[in-house]
Design goal:
Blueprint (H helix, E strand, L loop, with lengths): L21 E5 L15 E3 L4 E3 L13 E6 L2 E3 L2 E5 L19 H5 L5 E8 L4 E12 L3 H15 L3 E2 L1 E4 L9 E9 L4 E5 L2 E2 L1 E4 L5 E2 L14 E4 L2 E10 L13 E11 L18 E3 L7 E14 L9 H4 L7 E5 L1
């Protein structure tokens, strides 16, 4: 029996006899969030959710809120991570940040609440998050755009997590970004996704622009991924035993994201697949203005995956050469 201990955390994982048993440490390009194992069952009546070290699950009733939290952004092309508010994104109330565990504090994680609103089984086809306007005559606006361009040029990645309305971080469910690998005929899923991308002068798409080269191909242009399509996968509670009086709602087993660049015209939102991309020139014209509207969509999808197996599809994407096994 092994207990997973992600590289981004350092824990003393204890059994009921207070003895450290087995640990697994794995390293990958995108650090994995925490999987915590608890000795005692925790019952949280206020939010009607239940966590158990035996079954390791959280139950959501219908219309229960799911909170998305953002973390610092990092890049494999730079050693400097940035807090989410370093870039001019839509910000939540940072005073409501969750309590971070020891591993997250020591490794410099900065988990902050987002302004994305998710209610269980409530789909959103196209919803506005916030709007930013930049004037090329304003030095502060120019600096903000420069920072966004720097993040896209160096391929900085978002890292989001979902917490199911809990006051403490009990389970960090990562929001994953899956890319189809044609050679392996399977998806590779990561716990981060690019904030945007850049196309060089010779029309060579860098990093994130490879998501859709036919769409992101204008030379000397940045494409900010200002829209995300969120797919929430859940297991029907009526399938398994649970502590709720009614077999309604479900257990969320995955949240997947597909980032896109969309040019919303004015106050009219267009989240369709053929919506034009948001093109940010490398050298904006003096005196011009740029509007960036952030948006998102949400859809729910039933899944047969059990809560205890929710990490399998992520771990299967990690090459075995990047997994180091330790036994104590």
């Amino acid at each position: 029996k092994f207990i997973l201990l992600p590289f981004s955390t350092i824990y003393n994982v204890k059994t009921r006899e207070n003895k450290v048993e087995h640990c697994v440490n794995f390293r990958s390009k995108h650090r994995m969030p925490t999987i915590s194992s608890y000795a005692n069952d925790i019952s949280i009546n206020q939010t009607q959710k239940y966590f158990s070290d035996q079954n390791a699950r959280l139950d959501n009733v219908i219309l229960s809120n799911v909170t998305l939290f953002v973390n610092r952004l990092d890049s494999d092309q730079s050693v400097i991570p940035y807090e989410y508010h370093h870039f001019d994104f839509c910000l939540g109330n940072e005073n409501e940040s969750p309590v971070e565990n020891l591993g997250q504090v020591l490794f410099g994680e900065r988990i902050r609440p987002s302004v994305y609103e998710i209610s269980f089984l409530k789909e959103e086809p196209c919803k506005s998050l916030c709007k930013k306007t930049y004037s090329m005559n304003n030095k502060d606006d120019q600096f903000k755009l420069t920072q966004l361009a720097k993040g896209m040029m160096l391929n900085y990645y978002h890292h989001w997590y979902a917490f199911l309305n809990l006051p403490l971080i009990i389970d960090n469910m990562p929001v994953t970004f899956c890319v189809k690998q044609l050679a392996q005929h399977q998806n590779t899923c990561m716990t981060g996704f690019p904030m945007g991308c850049y196309v060089t002068q010779d029309r060579r798409p860098k990093d994130g622009c490879g998501i859709d080269p036919s769409r992101y191909n204008k030379p000397n242009t940045f494409y900010l991924f200002n829209h995300v399509d969120l797919t929430v996968e859940y297991r029907d509670m009526s399938v398994d035993w649970n502590m709720m009086e009614e077999n309604s709602g479900g257990r969320i087993v995955a949240i997947k994201v597909e980032p896109r660049s969309i040019q919303h015209l004015g106050d009219k939102l267009d989240c369709s697949s053929d919506a034009p991309p948001l093109e940010i020139p490398e050298s904006p014209k003096e005196g011009s203005t740029l509007d960036i509207t952030y948006s998102y969509s949400i859809k729910f999808q039933k899944s047969n995956i059990k809560w205890s197996s929710r990490w399998d599809y992520i771990l299967e994407s990690i090459p075995q050469s990047n997994i180091q096994w330790f036994r104590q």
